[in-house]
Design brief:
The protein folds into 2 domains: about 260 residues, Rossmann fold; about 35 residues, no CATH class. It has 9 helices and 11 strands. Helix 1 packs across helix 4 and helix 1 runs parallel beside helix 9. The longest helix has 27 residues. By secondary structure, the protein is α/β, with parallel strands linked by helices.
Length: about 300
């Protein structure tokens, strides 16, 4: 994060919305519904299937039916041959794990990284709710700040959106180990986890790989253009948003190139960590519409299936 002696990028403090919260919840809910119905409903439904099968009914045996499906108890009781019929279990358990650390307060376009994470989580929450899935929410920083167990229904979805908008975390930094371990303990059945973060955190690949073996994990990796490309700014106060530490550095032409090299190196480490964990990755950026990125990912996942 930068505090330049020239005009600086905008920073939002992600403070609670106070008396405007109800209006903001309604606004985001309307915006979310429009995005879901326009782009995501079909793609989401097609991309994610239930885990396992569930019993539907018994019916009389017909020539060509698999004899392994015969229900011998019903057959013995009725004197006629019946088979069991199963259908794919459609309902999913979805958990949205959202990073609220202070690095998310950075943003140089129409939204901050935190706001991008909140909006993407709200869209996914509504898409899952419209699909009759159970949805839960985890908010984390360098600790687990809040966990809302998965449930179904519109009122529950609205509650999640309120929490996304209004919750003020205690922690400042980012530690992915804590939320990963918490999810591993709390989720007893196979679930779909959307992990939404800039992933500026200590090593997490091994923990995430363990979680990915039991659950379907999708990493939404958030960034801002000013993190990727810093123009020559001259003398700049560089601020660590998670610790508040400030130091003055020279970001002239050579300094800007050094920053770019270091940022690329750091992102390569993050990308290797995510790839090593074997999870799906969807890059999101504050300078482009995120719904198209999500829809494109859903289409790719459906094609793989």
């Amino acid at each position: 994060m930068f505090r330049s002696r020239r005009p600086a990028p905008r920073f939002d403090d992600a403070s609670p919305l106070g008396p405007d919260l109800a209006r903001e919840v309604r606004r985001l809910h309307v915006l979310t519904r429009r995005r879901v119905s326009d782009l995501l409903a079909g793609e989401y439904h097609s991309a994610f299937k239930g885990h396992g099968i569930e019993f539907a009914e018994v019916r009389e045996y017909e020539p060509g039916d698999d004899v392994r499906s015969i229900d011998w108890n019903v057959t013995a009781r009725t004197g006629k041959t019946f088979i069991k019929r199963f259908v794919e279990e459609r309902q999913l358990t979805v958990v949205l794990a959202v990073d609220l650390s202070r690095s998310g307060a950075f943003g140089t376009r129409t939204r901050t990284k935190r706001r991008l994470g909140v909006e993407s989580a709200a869209v996914l929450s509504l898409a899952a709710t419209q699909n009759q899935d159970r949805v839960g929410l985890m908010l984390f920083t360098d600790r687990v700040e809040k966990f809302v167990p998965p449930r179904k229904g519109g009122p529950h979805c609205q509650r999640l959106i309120r929490d996304l908008l209004a919750f003020e975390p205690e922690g400042a930094g980012t530690d992915l180990a804590a939320p990963i371990h918490h999810l591993a303990r709390m989720l007893k059945r196979r679930s779909l986890i959307f992990l939404i973060s800039d992933f500026e955190a200590p090593s997490f690949a091994s923990d995430l790989a363990v979680l990915g073996r039991r659950h379907d994990v999708v990493a939404l990796s958030i960034s801002d253009p000013a993190e990727r490309h810093v123009p020559p700014l001259g003398l700049v106060d560089v601020v660590d948003p998670e610790t508040g530490h400030i130091r003055t550095v020279e970001l002239g032409r050579s300094g800007s190139k050094r920053y770019q090299t270091e940022w690329n190196r750091r992102r390569e480490v993050i990308e290797r960590s995510l790839a090593g964990a074997g999870v799906d990755v969807v890059p999101l950026s504050t300078d482009r519409p995120f719904v198209q990125d999500l829809a494109a990912y859903f289409r790719r996942k459906e094609a793989r299936r």
